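Q: What changes when 1-deoxynojirimycin is included in the input?
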Amino acid sequence: MVLITVSCVNNKEPKAVTAISKAWWKEAVVYQIYPRSFKDTNGDGIGDMKGIIEELDYIKSLGINAVWINPIYSSPNADNGYDVSDYRNIMSDFGTMEDFDSLLQGLHDRNIKFIMDLVVNHSSDEHEWFKQSRSSRDNPYRNYYHWWPAEKGKPPYRYSLFDAKGDAWKYDSITNAYYLHYFSQKQPDLNWENPKVRQEVFDIMKFWADKGVDGFRLDAFQFVAKDTTFPKLPDGFEKNFIQYYAMQDGLHDYLKEMNREVLSKYDVMSVAEGAGRNFKEAHELVDEDRHELNMAYAFDGVDLAKPDGYDLIKFKNTFTKWDQEFSKKGWLSIFLANHDQARLVSRFGNDSPEFREVSEKMLNTFILSMRGTPYCYYGDELGMTNIDFDSISQYQDIATINAYKKALSEGKDMKKFMSDLNFSSRDNGRTPMQWDDSKNAGFTSGKPWLPVNDNYKYINVATEDKNPNSILNHFRNMVKLRRENPVLIYGSYQLLQPKHPDIYAYTRTLDDQKMLVLLNFTDHNSSIELPQTRAVQKTLINNYNSVVAIEGEKVTLKPYQAVILSLN
Ligand code: NOJ
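A: The predicted holo structure follows.
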């Protein structure tokens, strides 16, 4: 427990000082880079580490202080790096270990932490462990993976998220056995019951921590523990597979061991993808006294957006419930977009020409003014949008392509399927970064691995950098406001008027510092009456240039207007 000295926006001496347990990762604003799509320097159409190095000053200019980069290990790229074939090497598309070292140094020189993606629920089927494992039943690596001998008959059904048939067991004729893959056939699941597997993973983590990485994002980790007797699951279980796959027995023991062996020995942060099946499990993952992880991502918020929209009241309830659950203990991650989602403004905002800018600024204001560590996805600081592909041949993502095959074989309405893809496919969020209005948006001199969105002519870094009113500069201002005001990091959160259909209003309070956040989530003017407005002192951020319309207790917000006001 450390005492925080409050730096006040109103220049008053703090009256009281709250005891809060501080940590750098709580104060971080994390910028997520999808390396394949960030910047290509060798003309092969694929982003690389040298590209990220070239743009370090840009990254620094955002004001963020941590970067999470999706997997950069050697990989045959069935799932863009989430299928690792060598955990101690760098994917040749991305460069070399020397490039990695320079990148890490470049980030550290700028006081930016580096979070490494750790993909250890599964490896690639091209990893040496799997090659050995499949070669014979008595190979020492056999038990690194889950095998079901075919003479026992077909294994009990397990659902695969990425398989074209939805089947997580793949028959392998070499040893007449099935192996388990919760993701694609090229991503066999590792057997965490085997202490040797755990030791391998801990050694890999130490290898990177010794190099100086500052944290790990544990991919799909809530799935690593499995009941290896593989009992039959109830029919239709796959409709709620999280219930049957997440947080199985043994998981906490694995995390405690990881903490003991690695995490506790370095100044590294840890965040798990997935926060369990309920609040209790979410707490157990991140409770400081249990010595497991620092943070977990919950999907309840990000999952609310559907092709026909989402309900603001539910949105408010979801974020509020999560905040309340963690108000006394534990810490949250705040995000609405990442490489597994379509673009932020297209899903949660309004990407029409009239409202794209204001709605994206409003969403960034939200993410950066909530309690919890914000994770901001590359391109969302510019307002990049979904790309409208009209043929399946344009998609590259294994999840999308296999889901297409599955839907086709099940006789689904393919017209609807394709139109839903335009809203939901992960490739929407993976199109190349838009740097300027030159060919291929300045991303590559070659043919980009995924098409550049046509709107790069006006949505790009160079154009937005020059415009003080751009989404980019609003993002920078918002990051600065958060980082300079502990109330936005550690302050308590209180929802106001939960039932207001258009406006999300809340306060953040830390001792004598108080801020009021007002966000209009609609495309029309909307008013709200709040006694707090009588205490308004100053407008700290506003995504419109005009003065905020306050009359007594009534505030009227313009479409997608987002303001943060300091209160007396
Ligand atoms: C979650 C990652 O975020 C996603 O991109 C990946 O495809 C799966 N895990 C499998 O590793």
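Observations recorded in class: The longest strand covers residues 503-510.
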